[in-house]
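Catalogue entry: protein
Contents: sequence, fold tokens
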Amino acid sequence: MYKIFRFKSLTSTQDKAKEFSKKGLSDIVVVAGVQTKGIGRFKRKWHSGKGGLWMSILLKPKSIKNSQYLTFIAAISVAESIQKISKLKTNIKWPNDVHYKRKKLCGILTDGIFGKDNFIAVGIGLNVNQNKFPREISNTATSLNLIKHRAFSIKKLLDEITNKFFYLYENYYIKNKLEYILNSWKKYSDTIGKNVIVATRTKKIYGKAIGIDKNCNLLLRQKKRRITKIIEGDITVRH
């Protein structure tokens, strides 16, 4: 079983999860009404005012070897929960964004916390009831409210996502049934089979996304049929 800790405002739920890890806690969910310093991948600012679901799941798996699968589990849990509660079919963009018509609904950030004991914090930021966004992301972000023109219960979404996450974690991740997670993720992927541009920290790579390997890396077929393994980067689908 897991325990939920709720806060009106935090710098970020990831920060609070890391604090809790120092107390030896695990299998807990940290939720904030507002994050004042929400962070996305590559240390980007994550806009997380009122109206969204901002949460982190703190875990202490026996091995952190396959922790990248926890990002996939979070994305599957979000996509399935959105479909159940709002009847909206979303897609997952490798590795960690849940999109609707190429606009971002949710981002996921998985952090390792290393020390005497190792922990994993899986941060999930889902745009739920916002009806507008700051200008710099207004063309790339959306919310369930903007898509469906109605408000949604953040608590219901929280409960649904958390229950699905722990179901997959306990029945597949811990039992090392990783292929099931990979196949579930692929059902929602809108990256595989597409021509994409991958922006890494140092360069841009062009190719066709042809699959995912067992380490959750994206496989890209480039010119002369060379296969490149992408470990991290930002994906843009070429239309």
